[in-house]
Each structure stands twice: as structure tokens, then as C-alpha cells.
Design a protein that fits this description.
Distance between the termini of chain A: 33 Å
Helix content of chain A: 10-25%
Order of helices and strands of chain B: EEEEHEEHHEEEE
Number of helices of chain A: 7
Largest sheet of chain A: 6 strands, antiparallel
Structural class of chain B: alpha+beta
Oligomer: heterodimer
Strand order of the largest sheet of chain B: 1-10-3-8-6-5
Number of helices of chain B: 3
Radius of gyration of chain B: 16 Å
Radius of gyration of chain A: 17 Å
Strand content of chain B: 25-35%
Number of strands of chain A: 12
Order of helices and strands of chain A: HEEEEHEEHHHEEEEEEHH
Strand order of the largest sheet of chain A: 1-12-3-10-6-5
Strand content of chain A: 25-35%
Largest sheet of chain B: 6 strands, antiparallel
Structural class of chain A: alpha+beta
Chain lengths: ~240, ~210
């Protein structure tokens, strides 16, 4: 039985984000967001910010070097630039989430998949991660300055001995999921689009299910707090923020 | 592999500036000019950010840069792209051969997490960045994204590990970048004393700019 199975969770809400969709919300302190790959092959590009002070943002270099990892999975924390935990990965059935792929802009999407305008395709038009995330951030009065390195959930990119990237297909199958626990009020901005390095030639973003719950016991974060001494200190900093 | 380009003479440089260990420096480099960063004494991380001078909201974009070259390290031939998809600079010479893109910059806050709460009050790169940005006035905290660490060695393993290793650099190694547009260059000559990124001994770095 995992710590997640033991945690008392109250389901709050559920929503399916269609492929190509974008959304944003505050994941409140003590809440859990479970993201599920509905069909397999999904990718979700994510930016996290401190909801109260959004100049504090997900810092992937701090996240990676603080935990001596390039691969993010269960037990890892997503650090802000201020040494706090915006979210902890408390469960993950994929084993690898990507930090290097980023998001494509409109020119890059056109170069990869061809023209796909709203005028012809209506809501099946080709969307891009830069515009999707910018639009969501604009709703919180944020902008281009706030779009930093993003996390790509459900995707795996390895680095070989020469430093060359390799996108690994099949990292996520139907019903694979990742759960993010927020020890602080975290503004989550995300979009469900193909990973930029995914060689699939057609524009075919996959849907994901978002499920929110309230966690009644913080035992859920124990594995993340104790996986490394750095994480214990980052949780400590997070708790200091709420003195 | 490191390659050495035709030697440029320091005497013909428009600008020569030595950044003492642990200090920030900001300069502008015009389109077509070449900037050389020299690791004077070896194994010194030079934390660097680039912005378009005409629109400082346009900045170096690590993920796009890495994706377009399909490699995690920077060296000769690497084009540094912006968050708007435009080339900012190209690495045209590199006697070191590998520069880090994932390690980011040290900060009071990250030192407290990585080492101990007692390390919070040591000097750091992000304090340098902020100080230089706020004095300049065109840039602020929101403009500080993930930087390049010239001369720093952060290998990624095929299994997904990431470590800080002793640098591949040595005294006098340098990297040269040709500006593809007018750029603001923001540097912190890293003061980190808690890991081997500066060989446990931060040292000066020199900048030279040629037309």
C-alpha cells in the first residue's frame, strides 16, 4: 500500500481537457491534482507559479540540480526559484517526465504539421504551446516574461553519451497518470499538446483527465519530503512562507 | 571537439574588461560584433543571460535552443535562440568544448535548499543578476530565466542522472559568440563555494569585444 492509498482524499472535481486545450487554475495548499492520460500518448506542458506572488515560478534548473536528476518522477519536487515546493510528484505510473522539450510556437507548428487554420478547421485548428500558455497566463495578468522552461508531463527524452536527445515513444499509455500535491497555493497553467520532439507526423494532440481532491492528511507528501535532504529543506521553506 | 579559430588580437578589441570573481557585469554587443569570454584561471563558471537590446522581453530560450540543435550541451556552431524564435548569437569559437545549459544559477534560496539553511547568506549569482538588472532599469526579476553556464560541466546520463563535475576548462580557455542582433549580455561571474563548479575557488573572467 502506498502513502497515496493511505491518504484520506475528498474528491472535489473532475474535467476532461481535450487535446489542444489549455486551462489554468489555483491548486490550493493541501490539494492534489491527478492528471490521467485518457487514450495513451498524451503530453501536457505545464508552468507553475506562486499564486500569491507570481514572480516566483517553476525553476527547472533548480529542480534538476537540487535533486541530482534529469528524469522527474514519483518522489521528486518541483521547485520554485525561491527554494519552495510548488508541487510534489506524489505518484506517477510513467516513470519519466521531461524538462527539456519546451513548447513550439506557431511557426514551428506550421513547419512540423503544415498549415492548420481556424478558417478551414474550426476548433480542430493547429494550436501551439507558446500561444496556449501565453493566453492562459494573460488571464492572470502575466505575460511573455513569465513563460520560462516548462515541464512536459508524460514524455520521455533521454540524453546519450554525446549529449544528443532521443525522444522515447510509448512512455505513457491509456490510464497512466501523475499526481501533483501542492504544499502552497500554486497557479497551474497547462496545455495538452504533442511533445515538440514527438516524431508523429500528424497534428493529433490527446486529451487528459484532470481530477482535484483535498488531502486530509499530509502523509501523502512524506515520500517526497524524505526522498532527499534537499526536499525536506524545500518543504521547510514552503512552510515558512505561511507563518 | 574544441576548435581554435583564427586568432584575434587582443590589441584590436573594442572592449577589454576583467570581471573579478563573484561580481556581475552587463554590456551590450551590437549585431555582427564578437564577444569572447575567457576563463582566465580555469574552472570558473560564467553564468550568462542574453536579451534583445531592442526588446528586452525577448531573451535567450534554453528549451528552444537545445531542441533546435538536438543536443544538451553548447559548443561551436550552437545558435542561441530567443523565446520569439529568433537567433540571438552563434558560438563561433570554443576552446573548452562543453558549456552547461541545465544547471541554472545559484541563489540564496537554492543554496539554502541544496546545502543547508546556514548557506542562505552567502553571495550568489541570482543576487548579482538582480542587482545588475535593477540598476540598469530595463530588466527585473521576471526577466531572469534559465541561464548558460560557460565553462561548467553538468553531465546528463542516459539513465536520467545529473551531476556537477569538475570542469573541462583550464586557464585561458575561451568561447566566442557572434551577435546576430543587438544584445544585452548579463553576467554573474559565479561566487559559488559549495560545489566544484568553480573548482572551489572563484576566479576572474575576461570579456573582449571585436567588431
Amino acid at each position: 500500500m502506498t502513502t497515496e492509498d493511505l491518504a484520506l482524499e475528498a474528491a472535489l472535481y473532475e474535467e476532461t481537457l481535450p487535446g489542444g486545450g489549455h486551462t489554468s487554475f489555483i491548486l490550493k495548499r493541501g490539494q492534489l491534482l491527478r492528471i490521467t492520460d485518457v487514450e495513451g500518448g498524451a503530453n501536457v506542458s505545464v508552468m507553475l507559479l506562486n499564486a500569491q506572488q507570481p514572480s516566483e515560478r517553476l525553476n527547472l534548473p533548480d529542480t534538476l540540480k537540487g535533486q541530482h536528476t534529469f528524469r522527474l518522477t514519483t518522489g521528486h519536487c518541483l521547485y520554485s526559484d525561491m527554494g519552495r515546493v510548488l508541487a510534489a510528484i506524489v505518484s506517477d505510473s510513467c516513470g519519466w517526465h521531461d524538462s527539456v522539450g519546451g513548447v513550439l510556437n506557431s511557426d514551428e507548428v506550421r513547419a512540423k504539421y503544415g498549415t492548420g487554420r481556424y478558417q478551414e478547421l474550426r476548433n480542430a485548428y493547429h494550436r501551439n504551446g507558446v500561444d496556449n500558455l501565453l493566453v492562459e497566463m494573460g488571464k492572470w495578468n502575466l505575460g511573455l516574461q513569465d513563460l520560462l522552461m516548462v515541464l512536459n508531463l508524460f514524455s520521455k527524452v533521454t540524453v546519450d553519451a554525446e549529449g544528443v536527445f532521443h525522444f522515447v515513444p510509448g512512455n505513457s499509455n491509456a490510464d497512466d497518470h501523475v499526481s501533483l500535491y501542492a504544499p502552497m497555493d500554486t497557479l497551474v497553467v497547462l496545455t495538452a499538446l504533442q511533445h515538440p520532439m514527438d516524431p508523429h507526423p500528424q497534428y493529433a494532440p490527446r486529451p487528459v483527465k484532470l481530477a482535484w481532491s483535498g488531502v486530509r492528511s499530509d502523509g501523502i507528501s512524506t515520500a517526497c519530503r524524505t526522498s532527499r535532504p534537499e526536499n525536506a529543506r524545500a518543504f521547510h521553506n514552503t512552510e515558512r512562507f505561511y507563518l | 571537439m574544441p576548435r581554435t579559430p583564427p586568432e584575434r588580437s587582443a590589441e584590436t578589441a573594442l572592449l577589454r574588461h576583467v570581471i573579478p570573481a563573484g561580481e556581475p557585469y552587463m554590456l551590450e554587443v551590437a549585431a555582427g560584433q564578437t564577444l569572447r569570454v575567457v576563463d582566465l584561471e580555469g574552472n570558473q563558471a560564467v553564468d550568462t543571460l542574453f536579451y534583445s537590446a531592442s526588446n528586452p522581453r525577448e531573451r535567450y530560450d534554453p528549451q528552444r535552443t537545445l531542441r533546435r540543435q538536438n543536443r544538451v550541451y553548447l559548443t561551436i556552431g550552437s545558435v542561441l535562440y530567443s523565446n520569439l524564435g529568433n537567433p540571438l548569437l552563434t558560438i563561433v569559437a570554443d576552446t573548452c568544448g562543453r558549456h552547461d545549459t541545465l544547471g541554472g544559477a545559484c541563489a540564496q534560496e537554492s543554496n539554502a535548499v541544496r546545502y543547508s539553511p546556514g548557506k542562505r547568506y552567502m553571495h550568489s549569482c541570482r543576487d548579482n543578476f538582480l542587482c545588475a538588472c535593477l540598476h540598469d532599469g530595463r530588466l527585473g526579476k521576471r526577466d531572469i530565466g534559465a541561464n548558460i553556464n560557460f565553462f561548467m560541466n553538468v553531465p546528463v546520463t542516459p539513465e536520467g542522472g545529473l551531476t556537477f563535475e569538475d570542469g573541462l576548462s583550464a586557464p585561458g580557455k575561451y568561447v566566442e559568440l557572434r551577435a546576430e542582433t543587438d544584445v544585452i549580455v548579463l553576467i554573474s561571474n559565479c561566487p559559488q563555494l559549495n560545489n566544484p563548479c568553480n573548482g572551489w575557488n572563484p576566479t576572474p573572467a575576461e570579456l573582449l569585444v571585436w567588431n
